[in-house]
Amino acid sequence: MLGDMVLGALQQGSSLSAAADRLAALLTGGGGGLADAGGGRLEFEADVALRPLVRAEVAPAEVWAVDGGQAVVADARCLQLVVARAARVCFRDGACELEDEGELGAWLLGGDEDRAVAAGLGLGVAADAAVDLNLLRDVQEWRAIERCVAEAGPGAVVLVDGDLEPDWRVAPWWFAELLALAAARGVVLAAVTKRSSLSRGGAPLLGCLELEGALAFGPRGLWWAPVARSRAGARVVAARLDPDAPYAFRVDLSPGVDPEPALGLLAAVCDDAGFPGYPYPLTVGDRLAACPSWLRQDTWFELDDLLDRAGVPAEVRERAFADRHDLMERF
User: Fold this and answer.
1) Which of 105, 164, 246, 319 is found 20 to 30 A from 193 (Cα to Cα)?
2) pTM of the model
3) Which helix (H) or strand (E) holds 109?
């Protein structure tokens, strides 16, 4: 027994050492091909060259922001009660005029329930599509984005959390119509990804560019670099948008938008002291859309009360949603 334990420890140490050696080689390699570990279908630039960026002196007169939140309220494994919502924010002339946390939608997922949910989603989602919580949140967000584009005036910027491409189950024609509407109304769509899966030579791309940017433009220099184009024609770039920001971000811009002036305008709303380098309207949307533990608990209390009124015995409710892992790990 003792021999097996020693052998296991040696093998673990050996595998960790090998993994560390490989990780060190990737992180310090400094070159290689571009890729997206998130599965995005991108056409990458042949050369990612850093360019200086000048922040606009005045922020856009009208800025909208959309972010979503989601939570599992009750999980019986074969059935789940889930909730999702999308918040909308609007700043005009620097003042926040709208803070809409969005309606909290609830769905029952699992087994035959998925088909009924899929049929009612719209956005070209097939009636037989596989449904999960990520899709539900995405649909809520893109419906909110569509409302923002429809209500925004010419020259407005609509900020999106994440990349500028809906879930693969949303029909391409629906997204193409949204992009056409934005272009017709003179509205810029800009999506900002908080944690990018882009890589170069297997290493995180943005981390590499941040180091290169500091060398090229100094520790407080602003810069951007073209990275790729999406299948819908969106321009994908990397950008450092505030001199006090420790990080750069992936930014997707709607087709036909000139990146440099658009990024300059975006930088003008990225100077919040609490979140330097990230658009502050999106931070407001993130706060509004979040589904924290207290909201999940309140929703569960409401669900439990509705089930009680429907005549479902307390014992049945408790046994259906009990987490046996939690029961086993109490001690």
Assistant:
1) 105
2) 0.88
3) strand 105-109
90: β partners:
64, 98
What is the C-alpha to C-alpha distance for residues 67 and 290, in angstroms, rounded to an integer?
A: 9
CB 84 within 8 A of CB 70: yes
290 CB burial (10 A radius; 0-12, 13-18, 19+): middle
pLDDT exceeds 50 at position 132: yes
CB burial readout 184-194, b (16+ within 10 A) else e: ebebbbbbbbe
Q: What is the mean pLDDT of residues 301-308?
A: 89
Class of the CATH-defined domain 51-289: alpha beta
Cβ atoms 249, 86 nearer than 8 A: no
Go through the chain and tell me how many residues it has.
331
Domain with CATH 3.30.2170 in the chain: 51-289
Rounded Cα gap, residues 237 and 70, in angstroms: 28
DSSP letter assigned to residue 155: T
Residues 6+ apart with CB under 8 A from 286: 67, 87, 161
Tens digit of each residue's pLDDT (9 = 90 or more) over 39-96: 778 999 988 999 999 999 999 999 999 999 999 998 888 888 999 999 999 999 989 9
How far is Cα 331 from Cα 327, in angstroms, rounded to an integer?
9
Angle at the Cα of 234 from the Cα atoms of 198 and 264, rounded to 5 degrees: 85
Tokens of 44: 């990458």
Residues 174 and 170: their CA atoms lie apart, in Å, by 7
- Residue 111: which region, alpha, beta or left (left: phi > 0; alpha: psi -120 to 50)? left
Closest by CA to 73, choosing from 60, 84, 86, 57, is 84
First to last CA, the chain: 26
